[in-house]
Design a protein that fits this description.
The chain is of the alpha+beta class and about 60 residues long. Helix content is about 30%, strand content about 20%.
Length: about 60
């Protein structure tokens, strides 16, 4: 599965369940400008990476299309 598909599925689960899946975390990698999904508790891909689960739950990535 490609990274974009994993991110899409993570976002869909978060919207449907009202919270991020507890076995995964969504991470924003500022060096590449990409979101990545990785197992919960994994080390971040770089020191500048930010776990984005809370802002995802708050609806930051939600779109009304």
């Amino acid at each position: 599965m490609s990274n974009s598909q994993e991110v899409q599925q993570h976002l869909e689960k978060t919207v449907q369940q009202g919270q991020a899946p507890r076995d995964q975390q969504l991470v924003f990698e500022p060096g590449t400008g990409e979101l990545v999904v990785q197992p919960q508790g994994s080390s971040k891909p770089s020191p500048d990476a930010v776990v984005a689960d809370q802002i995802t739950e708050d609806g930051f990535f939600w779109s009304q299309t």
